[in-house]
Amino acid sequence: MSTEQNRTNTNDKLDELEQNREYSTGEFLTTNQGLRVNDDQNSLKTGPRGATLLEDFILREKITHFDHERIPERIVHARGAAAHGYFQVYEPQAGLTKAKFLQDPSVKTPVFVRFSTVAGSRGSSDLARDVRGFAVKFYTEEGNFDLVGNNMPVFFIQDSIKFPDFVHAVKPEPNNEIPQAASAHDTFWDFISITPESMHMIMWVMSDRAIPRSYRMMEGFGVHTFRFINGEGKSSFVKFHWKPLLGVHSVVWDEAQLISGRDPDFHRRDLWDSIEGGAYPEWELGVQIVAEEDEHKFDFDLLDATKIIPEELVPVQRIGKMVLNRNPDNYFAETEQVAFHLGHLVPGLDFTNDPLLQGRLFSYTDTQLKRLGGPNFHEIPINRPIAPVHNGQRDGHMRQTINVGRTSYSPNGINADSPAQAKESEGGFASYAERIDGHKVRARSKSFRDHYSQAKLFWNSQSDTEKTHIVKALRFELGKVAVEEIRERMLIHLAQVDTTLATLVGEGLGLTVPSAQGVQLNKGVPADANPADYQPTTARTDVGQSAALSMANPPKVGIKTRQVAILAADGVDNTEFDVIKQALSAEEAVIAIVAPRLGKLKTSTGEAVKIDASLQTTASVLFDAVYVPGGQTSVNSLLQEADAVRFVHEAFMHCKPIAATAEGVDLLKAAANGGAEKLLSSEGVITGEGTNAEAVPQKFIEAIGEHRFWSREKTLV
Ligand code: HDD
């Protein structure tokens, strides 16, 4: 494809959206019929104090539209944020797939990506402990391809028929609609404790992956095994991955809960602000490829969505990059109305028989019909492909296309059989001719019965800190469960994964791990089936470890876009202030001057500096690191502010990098609850005076690159 054509493609989507944008720049106010409105402040009445007249069509139009402003929120993934961008492949992938958007490295395929939480309603907090949705719509030349994945590579259940049960269990309980956006309640754990297939996923959602630092710092996964089909018709299995170039980072649970109060839009804002600031989030698309003939060579089933293919067995090849570089113009029109569906795919890709995937193929269109109100949702600008659409589908609610001509059927003679079917060589989609031969049964394959081995693999692969966080998460979640039997059942399952894990969780709950003897670990058994056939197998002892499952050793990727608070007040040392600001800016970190009040502060040399946030409007949990420059007057003012002292203390408790120079060290001491020596000698706390102060900015920057200093979790100050 020529560069010119490429430019046309990427601009096509923008142009198309442009046609639907409305800018209010000095125009008259009108009704929806284009009538200019003369008085938009008063309804039509019988005299200034009279009754309002039914005749007032302007009032009625405005109120009617308002009354209908809401559409049903998504039943799952209601809370989200999205952005536009593009995808580019690194090298042609013709050997694997004929998908056109994966061939030409000069082509930028437009994308729209929506991130979400699963359980909460549209107004819930971003920081819930939850899976994050990671849904990518590629507007390719051959039609839209939607990769509707999550930030975790496995799922809670193996068969889609259980999805409504799972979702009902995790959603707020139906009698009182409590708790919002939280899995820490009886119905969720009741379901999980008798559904052992969820155990691998439970390890992921109890880990810090469920409380990401940012959407920009999460991995994404297509979860299911899909198929690639190349030009010769040869198929291979493929698992999709998104690898964030900013590394994978999370917050800690206490912090997550505080952020939910301080800024429930934390993730939305982070995505929005970084794109507005020109720091475009990037991910590489990775694929794990398994040859068709190797389908059965693993000790798990490729069709089982509760399993990963460990990267040690099949490495992830990075084949392209996605960049998000534009925020939506209108949340509702784009982020709310975007309609994803696994069944939106292009030649070169196909499904497998994964029973979770198969059910999803029905659900997504069905849900859009309800949510978006009819079968024409593909005509909403954000959903329209850049590839032309021609078919005999007509009419329905809110039809936008004006189909010209007499024929809306195929084949037809009157219009020379147009639109015509396309041969495969012309880009026509043909399903992979997989051989299927079997009895019609409702059953679960025996190869799906090992629920604990990969849960164990995940546990084994975690660092000590990550393990501690999983134990704490389980203590929290199960601690909120009222029915003791549920807690005990969970301990039995956890013991199947790892006995130390179960014992530690049990200690927090005041329980010993009950014996599994005679316990039916799976209650999801068909009425006429033999429960023994559904009893999970015990975990293998040889599962080993997989480095890719731990977030503990992320590649060092610098501190770009990391949020740093500089605590200061009038009289802050001008030189120290400048030095740290310059050093952080050079690394492209984002700096906020936090002071006791808003407005401007005067530095020691009288220079006026704009304050970004007052201590009342922000909190340490909204930052990655804290810096306190010297200047006696400045530090004296901060010492008078309980919020400033708490700011530093909280940052310390959350293991964040903290630095101070000269008098600034006094604020750190004040935040130490009498344990100043302990605090100052802790990892990730950097201080210096006089000539020693010169090295502080550089050490601070290195510390931010480390993200957190977990040894401090055991340091009580
Ligand atoms: Fe789903 C939305 C991801 C299983 C039924 N799902 C939805 C979204 C994501 C996922 C990211 C939000 C899309 C957006 O931003 O608009 N879902 C997954 C993953 C799954 C999964 C990774 C397992 C591998 N989902 C799943 C099953 C079913 C559904 C088994 C039903 C049988 N999902 C839906 C849905 C939603 C949805 C009800 C709600 C809103 C929507 O589709 O558009 O159809």
TrEMBL record:
Cross-link position per record: 3'-histidyl-3-tyrosine (His-Tyr): H341-Y364
UniProt keyword terms in alphabetical order: Heme, Hydrogen peroxide, Iron, Metal-binding, Oxidoreductase, Peroxidase
InterPro entries: Catalase, Catalase_AS, Catalase_clade2, Catalase_clade2_helical, Catalase_core, Catalase_haem_BS, Catalase_immune_responsive, Catalase_large_C
Superkingdom of origin organism: Bacteria
Keyword GTP-binding: no
Record's catalysed reaction(s): 2 H2O2 = O2 + 2 H2O
Needed cofactors: heme
Binding-site list for heme: R74, R114, F163, R360, Y364, R371
Cellular component aspect of the GO annotation: cytosol
GO MF annotation: an example: catalase activity
Family to which the UniProt record says this protein belongs: Belongs to the catalase family. HPII subfamily.
Function: Decomposes hydrogen peroxide into water and oxygen; serves to protect cells from the toxic effects of hydrogen peroxide.
UniProt protein name: Catalase
Organism: Spirosoma radiotolerans
Gene: katE
